[in-house]
Every structure is written in structure tokens, then in C-alpha cells.
Amino acid sequence: MDDPREEGSLCQACGKRYKVDVWIPKRFWRKITPRRDNLEAGLLCGPCALERIEQLFGFAAFRLVERR
Ligand SMILES: [Zn+2]
């Protein structure tokens, strides 16, 4: 059961809480967001975001950079 007092965001695909926010360019995000009613919105944990990107692009490579 999810405890809303815990830190982090709640993934809208798997329902798990996560703390590492992965920024995804809007042109990709609009295709993978769980919020079909608002393509700019939504929350996905890293594994769910990458799984959807894999379904979209197949084999691909991306660079992870630290956001300050
Ligand atoms: Zn998830």
C-alpha cells in the first residue's frame, strides 16, 4: 500500500513511488505520457519511462546528464 507521507512521486503507470526524476524531451514525452488527456503532464518512474521508450523506438541509446 502506498504511503503518501513517503518522499518522492507516484508513478502513474506501475503505482510505485520513485525519487529519481528523469527529464524526457517533450517530443518523446508526448508519446509515452500516461496522461492521454494532457500530453504535457503525467508522472512515470524511470523503468516505466524507459520501457515505453523501448516500445516506441526499439533499440536506442540516450545520454543521461545531471540536472542542476
Ligand atoms: Zn512505474
Overall description:
This protein has 68 residues and is mainly α. The chain is 28% helix and 6% strand. The chain has one domain. The protein has a two-stranded antiparallel sheet with strand order 1-2. It is globular. The protein starts with 8 loop residues before the first strand and ends in an 11-residue tail after the last helix. The mean pLDDT is 90. Zinc ion is lined by residues 11, 13-14, 16, 44-45, 47-48.
Describe, in short, the structure shown.
Helices cover 28% and strands 6% of the residues. With 68 residues, the chain is mainly alpha-helical. It has one domain.
Would you tell me the structural class of the helices and strands? Answer: mainly alpha
Question: Unreliable segments (pLDDT under 50, ≥5 consecutive)?
Answer: none
Largest sheet: 2 strands, antiparallel
**Strand-residue proportion:** 5-15%
- Tally of helical segments: 2
- Count all strands and give the number: 2
Q: Alpha-carbon distance between the termini? A: 32 Å
Mean pLDDT: 90
Strand order across the largest sheet: 1-2
**What count of structural domains?**
1
